[in-house]
Amino acid sequence: MADAGKKQKPETGSLSGDVEPGGFPDPAESAASAKAARAEAPRSSHGDLVLPGDRVDPVDQLEAQAASRVPDLIPQRYGRMLESAFTFYRGAAGIMAGDLVPSPVSGIRVQACGDAHLSNFGLFAAPDRKFVFDVNDFDETLPGPWEWDLKRLAASLEIGGRDRGFDKGDRKRMVVDSVAEYRRSMRRYSGMSNLDVWYARTGRPEIVEHFGSQAGEKEWRRVQKRVAKARGKDRLRAFSKLTHVVDGELRIISDWPDVVPLDELVPAVQLPGLHDRIRAILSDYRETLSRDRRHLLDSYRFVDAAVKVVGVGSVGTRCWMVLMTGRDSGDPLFLQIKEAQQSVLEPYLGASQFANHGERVVEGQRITQSAGDIFLGWVRAEGIDGVKRDSYVRQLWDWKGSADVDTMDLGMMTVYGQLCGSVLARAHARTGNRFAIAGYLGKSSTFDRAIARFASAYADQNERDYEALLAAADSGRIEVEAPER
Predict the structure, then answer these.
(1) What is the DSSP code string of 139-200?
(2) Cis peptide leading into 257, omega within 30 of 0?
């Protein structure tokens, strides 16, 4: 195990951090060495916010990140980030990554999500068509300290709680409860067999069993509504909402600026050549799928494509929506081809072992999630501008549902935070040394309370950074486009 408590730049050659092929850690030795690590990185020390001495201006950081994105979409990204301190936080993963470098770490690595805030957890359909609740955004994934993911989750709870007007005591209890659930879950996973950890998932039965009793009747009704809404968000719903028939042919509906079809991007004379290029991209992507899934993909044909704007943190990255049909026009398949850039963690933790950032995202997701999209793959392709970029591919809608943090009351956010803590622990238990993490955390609430202090301090810093972006907008330093309602 690496020296605990020291600023370090871990090797990133292994997907699973400390768990190397053929060298699985001994549970007793791992737990003992992790307890010893507390001497160098005391659990209480995680409550301190120590910012880098050479901290870069947050607006400068965002502007540097914008340099690799679509220039016309940057004002829209800033507009979304400026809606609130919470939406700013969602787009500021790179800022926080740098801020975490001086913080104490135990030296135990996992496949980190890299952006584990509240809105990056959600519902989706497993291949067996059962609902799964899990981490659902891996754009920044990279092997790294487990503490970084947990601190990002905790700070998002504190910031989300402030956004909702919860008082200081309620916010602290909410964060402590979430971290405590992570700690208890990690201890539970440390007592399970390797296969049982791998098979573990959080679906509707597990949510009811572990969290249903803590949610009041009002909160539980809201959960049921979210589940029903997610179930309705499938490929047929996408088909009815996103397509229409033009001159007897299916086409994606224009919804500028969020969805822009091909025929609005290039002259009609160039469309056949662009269609051929997209088919070639799909053919290259196909090779990253398993044989059975290639067989399924081959039963669909390309119909149309459009540029799509997504997320808050992802605004400005290049994203395509592809419409395909199978048996007939009533058998649609929507794929999303989303640009994958360098992880915001890489400047601090080292380069990914994967030359293609799409592959980095996909492999990180595959090893972390309890169930994944059957069409998840990657590709490197040349865009309309002639530049080759890395991307990953997944289904556009597949019973996907995310929590509406902006409308959560205290009870719902408290239970949701615990659920996220539990799911994050399972992800880390799959990819890192769960015995060592459990041993380091122990049975007391020392670490839980420390992270709550950190979350409050970082929420203060996030507000200062948010104000800095507001000032930049007011002064004209940056151009802002308000999001449409």
Answers:
(1) TT-EEEEHHHHHHHHHHHHHHHHHHTT--HHHHHHHHHHHHHHHHHHHHHHHTS-HHHHHH-
(2) yes
255-265 pLDDT per residue, tens: 887 899 988 88
Long-range contacts, stretch 201-210, CB < 8 angstroms, 24+ apart:
201/126, 201/132, 201/134, 201/370, 201/371, 201/426, 202/132, 202/133, 202/134, 202/370, 202/419, 202/422, 202/423, 202/426, 203/126, 203/130, 203/131, 203/132, 203/133, 204/130, 204/131, 207/133, 207/419, 210/422
Angle at 59 between CA 55 and CA 63, to 5 degrees: 110
Rg (C-alpha) for the chain, rounded Å, is: 22
At 138-196, the pLDDT tens digits run 999 999 999 999 999 999 999 999 999 999 999 999 999 999 999 999 999 999 999 99
Tell me the per-residue pLDDT of 122-149, one tens digit each, with 9 for 90 and over.
888 788 878 889 999 999 999 999 999 9
CA 248 to mean position of chain CA atoms: 39
Give dist(CA 157, CA 99) in Å, integer: 18
Q: Report the relative pairing of strands 109-112 and 142-145 from DSSP bridges.
A: antiparallel
What is the rounded distance in angstroms from the CA atom of residue 71 to the CA atom of residue 67? 8
**DSSP states along 411-461:** HHHHHHHHHHHHHHHHHHHHHS-HHHHHHHH-SSSHHHHHHHHHHHHHHHH
- Does pTM surpass 0.85? yes
Cβ contact 465:95 at 8 Å: yes
What SS3 state is found at 5?
coil
Span 292-326, pLDDT tens digits:
999 999 999 999 999 887 765 666 678 899 999 99
